[in-house]
Amino acid sequence: MNGQAWLLLLEGAWTTLWLCGIAISIGVVLGLGVALVRMAKIPFVDQILVLYISLARATPLVTFVLFLFLSAPMFGINMNRNTAAIVAMTLNTAAFNAEIWRAAFLSFSRDQREAALACGMTGGVFFRRIMLPQMITSSLPGLVNEMSFLIKGSPAIAVIGIVDLTRVTNRISAVTYEPLPPILCAALLYMLIISVLLKLQAMAEKKANRLAM
Amino acid sequence: MTEWTILWEARETFINGLIGTLVLFVLSTLCAFVLGCLAVYRLEAGDRFSWVIRTLINLMRTLPFLILAYLLYYGLPQLGVRMDAWTAGFISLIIYHAAYFAEILRGSRLVMPAGLVEAALAHGFTPGRLFWRIILPQLVIKTRPLLGNQLIIALKDTAFLTIITVQELTAAANSAQSTYFIPTQAFVLVIILYWLISICLELALKWAGRFGAKRGFDYV
User: Fold this and answer.
1) pLDDT for B219
2) A140-163 burial: b if 16+ Cβ within 10 Å, else e
3) Which chain B residues are Cβ-neighbours of A183 within 8 angstroms?
4) From the record, what ranges are coiled-coil (chain B) (predicted)?
5) Could you give phi then psi for residue B115, rounded to 5 degrees?
6) For chain B, what is the mean pLDDT?
7) Is residue B59 less than 8 Å (CB to CB) from chain A?
């Protein structure tokens, strides 16, 4: 393991991080959107969303990434590897996030809504000022947990040839003929990334508990 | 639709892949569960060795599954330990999920009331019989939703093994699509198969829930 190898490893870590980062930030918002639409209980749309969540939660990320990357050109959509990986990871994580947001919706107390409406707030203002801040606090531990799950699942994108933190170990060992050190170093980097997220999750839990929710 | 008839002609690939995934999943989760229970049993002792087990469990929880499979399949040959892809994948599935099972059971063990254990000790249970007869059955029944969740995660993790060239369902779809050039149909079929397996798991979980309720374990 020389400096060059470390540089490659860090580059792989960066690829993993930015792809996951984009997928997470879109996935959290999309999950909220899906949860909102599901709460509105629009017939037909609701069933489709239930089917989507059920399918996305049961499909392995590897299979889904391969499916998107290989079959998109058949429908005339040209996706490069990074786009396919981001779309797949986003759709995957959004399904899990939608369930977390929905649980926060369902456990929200009705009296607060009644009090806010009695004070003359409109539905939109109530959602933005009262409901959303509390929902964010109460579902943040679950969301951070899902983020660490996504990062643990992200080596799946190696299957379509993206050189992420896992795949880059193959590249390094192809030059050095010593596969063990790069894999161990990659494991170390993953541990670092996920430990930070676990720490964040503990902090979010503490905050949620302090607000007694 | 000619593509779908091709799919029917290639059914053997898919059936073999499905059997491959199911064998891998069932055997590895069974072994992982037993190993997880043994780890929790060893943790009861609370000596230095159980500290090592705790550290190992926490280590596994911060690693992606694939990196463990890489370590066993690509890394270990450097130390002279060589195994084929299936064995490496199988062993990594067992180790990884045993750690998660152990963590789930340990979490439930921590909040278990002490009175029951003390009563059993007063009746002269040896530590081994105390664990297998009194503690473990309760832990398993109480944590069954989490254990079931972990089973579904384990099922999805078997798909990772396609990257280290294990023959399973995703690998079957990949080989069928490259032979006949039917990516959409092949993967739709495989995704539906994964979906069906996880629906069966969820149904089994519900059935187990009824069993738990009958034994008076549901107070949620």
Assistant:
1) 54
2) bbbbbbbbbbbbbbbbbbbbbebb
3) 67, 70-71, 74-75
4) none
5) -60, -40
6) 89
7) yes
What structural domains does chain B harbor? 2-214 (1.10.3720.10)
Cα separation values, A58 from A51, A89, B13, Å: 11, 14, 22
For residue A111, give how far its alpha carbon lies from the nearest alpha carbon of chain B (Å): 23
- Contact assignment for A180 to B64 by CB distance below 8 Å: no
**A151 chain-B contacts, CB cut-off 8 A:** 64
The answer to whether A19 contacts chain B (CB < 8 Å) is no
- pLDDT at B22 exceeding the cut of 60: yes
What is the per-residue pLDDT for B1? 61
Chain A residues with beta carbon closer than 8 angstroms to that of B170: 60, 62-63, 66
pLDDT at B89 exceeding the cut of 90: yes
Which ranges of B44-84 would DSSP assign to H, the alpha helix?
48-61, 65-70
Is the CB of residue B212 less than 8 Å away from at least one CB of chain A? no
- pLDDT (0 to 100) of residue A61: 94
State yes or no: pLDDT of B220 exceeds 50: no
Quote the pTM value.
Answer: 0.89
Q: Are A210 and B86 in contact (CB under 8 A)?
A: no
Are A28 and A98 contacting, i.e. CB atoms less than 8 angstroms apart?
A: no
Task: Catalogue all structural domains in chain A, each as residue range(s) with its CATH number.
Answer: 3-210 (1.10.3720.10)
Q: Find out whether B192 and B116 touch, Cβ atoms under 8 Å.
A: no
The answer on pLDDT for B182 being more than 80 is yes
Q: For chain A, which residues score pLDDT lower than 70?
A: 212-213
